[in-house]
Amino acid sequence: MSSIAFIGLGNMGGPMAANLVKAGHSVVVFDLVQDNVDSLVAQGASAADSASKAVAEAEVVISMLPAGKHVESLYCGENGLVQHMLPGTTVIDSSTIDADTAKRVGGKLESAGFKFVDAPVSGGVAGAAAGTLTFIVGGAEDTFASVKPLLEAMGKNIFHAGDVGAGQVAKICNNMLLAILMTGTSEALQMGINNGLDPKVLSDIMLQSSGRNWTLELYNPCPDVLPQVPSSNNYNGGFMVDLMKKDLGLAMEAANSSKSMTPMGALAQNLYGIHSAQGNGKKDFSSIFELLAANNLN
Ligand code: NAD
Asked: Which atom of ligand 1 is nearest to the CA of 239?
């Protein structure tokens, strides 16, 4: 069993750390929000009152923070963890951040003698709680092999995408495609409704036809077509519009730096930006269906 420091106990990090405790690891936690720390302590973790104290005796450090600037400042900023970790510590950053920051942070940690993988996840809050996340890992082959058993305590599918940064690239390729599929599915359903079709019947038809895709099958954006999805719960829960907007921003940065042509991704970013600006940032991302609603062109 490993001695783990877990930094960032929000919607995702909280249940991920809890699964490590359940698997029998010794987990020391830190978050800027005391309630998040207290919740993990109640589930068997130990608390530290700073990130540097949390990592003092850890073999593995895991972070789950909002964005690249938080990750860079945690490890490499003033009094960063690079100055406090034990020699040889392995760092797993599971936040979704831009690949350039992941490579920069990974490079600095590796040149200071630490091991690093970027390991963003897919599967949302429900997957984090159930321990069924997909981990998309970038890093050296031997580091990947050494962290895989630990990741299996929090996830079901563990992929090695390539070198440091590759996990983040694969994750944003997936999320860019997801945004495009969700937007396309929404506009097809809205056009059907505007032409008198029942969205459930139309969904059933497209599910057996060539328009079939994950959003239509498992995450239908039209309310009351599927039970227990955010669209049937006023677009509450799930994956927030603002997080999708963030991921589309990361995708466009990756597209620019690699000179990739991504017109569909750019359009999805534009539409999610408008939807967020109209006050929908906290809703589930399937609410893009409402932006494309019948009355928009009237
Ligand atoms: P969140 O905002 O709920 O949690 C982030 C946590 O980090 C907060 O508790 C915050 O207090 C803490 N934090 C921030 N800076 C800190 C610091 N310097 N030291 C210690 N704690 C700090 O976010 P989340 O939903 O848990 O998402 C985390 C990451 O996972 C993001 O990059 C997100 O894009 C990604 N992600 C989220 C989902 C999802 O469905 N929520 C799915 C996949 C990936």
From this structure: 40
